[in-house]
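Protocol step 4 of 6: record predicted structures for both targets in the notebook before any analysis. Target 1:
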Amino acid sequence: MEIKSISAKLSVSGQISPDDVQQIADMGFRSLICNRPDGEGSDQPGFDEIAAAAKQFGLEVRYQPVVSGKVRDEDASEFGKIMQEVPKPAFAYCRTGTRCATLWSLSQAEKLSVADILAATKAAGYDMAGVVRRIANGGKTPTDRPDASYDVVIIGGGAAGIAVAASLKSRQSDLEIAVIDPADIHYYQPGWTMVGGGIFKPAQTAKTMGSLIPKGVHWLKSAVAAFEPQDNAVILDGCRVVKYDRLVVCPGLKLDWHKVEGLVETLGKYGVTSNYRYDLAPYTWQLVQGLKKGRAIFTQPPMPIKCAGAPQKAMYLSADHWRREGVLQDIDIHFCNAGGVLFGVKDYVPALEKYIDLYGANLDFFHNLVAIDGPAKKAWFDVKKPDQPEERVEMSFDMIHVCPPQTAPDFIRVSPLADAAGWVDVDQATLRHKTYENIWSLGDVMNAPNAKTAAAARKQAPVVAENIIADIKGQSPVAQYDGYGSCPLTVERGKIVLAEFGYGGTLLPSFPSWLVNGKKPTRLAWLLKEQILPPIYWKAMLRGKEWLAKPEKVSASPASNQ
């Protein structure tokens, strides 16, 4: 008997025997539900035998036989009623546990999200792909399916999604393309560091989604609930089914604020801020201007995260302001990094370390923020240094800039498209899915080992567009991605260390060293960040104009999968 937990209230298993009942009772279960009809198998004990044993040990029993492969809507409704009535936790069984898991999934469809249901059943070892439309439809079998159908469907209207839509349209204008995204506003997220440093105004980083969708591209303002890649279908909230010939998946990633205990309750007050949110970046600048003495903490969670340099950019710009105001010597700066290095590409570290020394900042490596108490102005870090036992450290603060833990979105992590870690599983050169040949992914959500930056998406979009057009023509992939990412490290107001690199930390500068030396802070790189890149983003990248982003052709030996 292998018991699998679906929720705190229900565990399931395959067929049990009367001898198993005592163990079930000893484990604390208070009721037993049988979802397997008597006589289904020749080696199957009858329900009456199980029920008699269960009553001996004080378990409440219910018999709800369901035919294998034929779970009806009314069966799910009845299972939901039984779960309401019986004492918990309950134990349910059938031949393998799948029927029990299916009944639970459908009965919870109006209480939990599709992603939560799929995550719970997947963790227990059950695949609910066959009933995902019913789950999305509130647990009921859909009767009306006015399916939409497109040549290319793009999940996500962020930098990657809009850019690849525009790049596709520029190559083949008659393509029927749909972008699926529920958001009304599109944000230029690289600008939020500058907002937090008092350089940009928030409004400079936001435009309406409708104004940016390329001409001729359909915008489906909805959230994705699940994928059916075997049927070339995407299921939207409300169970609308969208069909595609080719699919591009780029919804970005999820900022997991709840993973730090107490963080959500205190964001935006008590000196707790983050440039990772549009509405909080101005508060960062307010705090920086107001701090004259005390301790300022800047945190970085475990990788991967969106723009790995952003947490320390906030620190540098803040420290530079305090230096210019003449109060730096009265401020105790700490950079608490869950990792063990200042920056992942070693060539840029010497220039950054000079600024760490200039600002007198403390580098606290292997410090992972796990809890925060805003009113008490205290933060707790789990510190796990190599070859040392983990310890929890308390630090007080006057200001703390938090970079939240980050994961793939829930609906991606529980989907057939994800790898074991929850990211979309692609070939790192062609950005094509490793299992489904008509699916591509780019941006923050895919699992290629590159930096998750807008600059990376700018290079990836033409690669995906080229390879989709080649696929439409019946050709093999023609373009490959070299892992390019860029991180303009704002080390002081007016100077930037322009880090540009690809797979394996290979340096990939866009400009000759006599013009911009990426290993040193330069004013020209600051000019690029402040005045040139924003209009390039809005007026070129999102309109299919691929400045400095021409796709590299596939070589005889493209980059291997990792």
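Target 2:
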Amino acid sequence: MTRSSAFPTATPPQTEKRSIFDTHHGFTRTDDYAWLRADNWQAMFRDPSLLDSRIRAHLEAENAYQAVLMADTAELRKQLFAEMKGRIKEDDSTVPMKDGPYAYGSSYRLGGEQPRYFRTPRDGGTDEILLDGDAEAEGKPYFRLGGVDHSADHKKLLWAFDDKGSEFFTLSVRDLGNGHELADRIPDTGGGGVWNAGDDGFFYTRLDDNHRPSKVLFHALGDSAENDRLIYEETDPGFFMDVGGTRSNEWIMIGINDHETSEYRLMRADDPLAEPKLVAVRETGLQYDLEEGGNIFFILTNADGAKDFKIMTAPVENPVRANWRELVPHEPGRLILSVLGFSNYLVRLERKEGLPRIVVRDRESSEEHFISFDEEAFSLGLSGSYEYDTEIMRFTYSSMTTPAQVFDYNMRTRERVLLKTQEVPSGHDPDHYVTRRLMAPASDGELVPISLIHHRDTPLDGSAPCLLYGYGSYGITVPASFNTNCLSLVDRGFVYAIAHVRGGKDKGYGWYDDGKRAQKMNTFTDFIACARHLVAERYTAHARIVAQGGSAGGMLMGAIANMAPECFGGIVAEVPFVDVLTTMLDATLPLTPPEWPEWGNPIASADDYSTIAAYSPYDNVAALDYPPILAQAGLTDPRVTYWEPAKWVARLRERKSGGNPVLFKINMESGHAGASGRFSRLEEIAYTYAFALKVAGKADSVSAAASV
């Protein structure tokens, strides 16, 4: 691989080396860049000004270096931003969802960065703004709204915000009668809460110093937060915890889970002083979720070997596992993703043969029917309902060529009403594009799905550049949904492709199992197989492929860079989880203990240590001819800490053999999700796309139509 001529020659920051050593299971590692981790990281997440001045200087030098290498894309980034912004309806709003006398929704004002929450009379009328995100964000470099929940009596609003990017949310209560905030303001929460039945208090999770939701508390309005009643404390740092309620306002549900085990505790919403009751004790590998059903709970579970899940019921008076009864049996290859209960119906979202589908079941007759769609690949979502006793449920539909559509569906009459189609103000003609679903042969014979879109005029002779996106962890499926942003690449002749690699649930739960822990290497080899298949099918060439992934997908980017750098012309790793072994060896970090079921516990297991060490990107950087690499991060990110990509970039520059640059761009005022405003986020995407266009030799395509 020769040095890319797209970038000017410039001297990157020289990262000081300070060797430290650690030994586990007889293996000793040397880490020259561990000093980039701030010793006071917990305090710094709450107050970024506390960052060590030497670390800050290094990060600012990285930003200065990437600015030099990307300086010639300034006009291109402006053009990309304008295009992407032009596809957004600036004063867009959701379709309000009915609840009692009102319907609730969210909207944006022209030029607004943050959403506004509003309500309108149930059958139509004047909107009433309940919460204005732009007003709350004024003067703050970062602002992100968390949960927003109106009380059942429609008199109060419980809402959360994060103004550091570190995901320590503050809860606040607004009186909807006069618009004033009550004195009930609680910091360091998980980002949401749920009202009790009397609407005179709420339940919430409190984060500890290590950013873990370790306590569920009840706050009585008007009381001091110091007096909040502890409802439940989770002492095992390996479990996440959240608290929610049911639409009937009858139950409070405390959910406790890691990536393979779950547990629920229940209490009546009208009795905040009661002790929560255990449903089924946590049992390693047993997963279950609860959904209300009147005098029963619906239970979505993998119990009794139901790998792709089944649905059971249990009486609300005593929903212990001994009382679970099967309703919808397990069917191998049909993965049930979620269920939604109504007074007369049960709705489930499931995935079969790689595609989602919605099934509606009449609770009285047990008759089922499907909601059908015609496209080759598409995305579905259940939007739910505020109301339980209703015949109407809401869902969303889109494909890579079809803008998002919102439907209300009558479960009795089977009438489908289109409420809204996503507007693209600058125009969108689906006939200009082609979407396909390919199957790439993996090295072990499995077929890996690829969803892709390209302009109908793009030549498929191997000359087109390609952005290949991947994730492949935690069972998350990347939907083949409409993405207005990627059209800026597609209109410039790119093939935009999604590799549905193992580690997601695209082909059932087994697809997830085959891409985690000891089988994690399949995620990486699948992605490489997808790249090779796209080349074999003449969609692109290896030197024209820009790989992209974020978070755990950024780990994927680091791994494929080490395993097959020759297969890619460029790599974009966003908030990349690249120092996997070091992080999994540090039980003090926010997500480490809950992540052990996903990656393995290298502290306790020599086998897990060896497995992770074999692919951890930071540990496997070698004297290879890497393509140009762009790493991006946020300073206050508690999920993938900034020092992981900072260390990775330093080691890449130290060890690589080729002359291609490694860029590191860090947002000093954000966390894991990047910029918080909808337009400032577009500026970050424009930067990423400019890098991809630069690598592909398309940076001069200022007009979107120029290359097609």
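Step 5 preliminary note on target 2. Confidence is low (pLDDT under 50) at residues 704-708. The first helix runs from residue 41 to 46.
Proceed to step 6 after PI sign-off.
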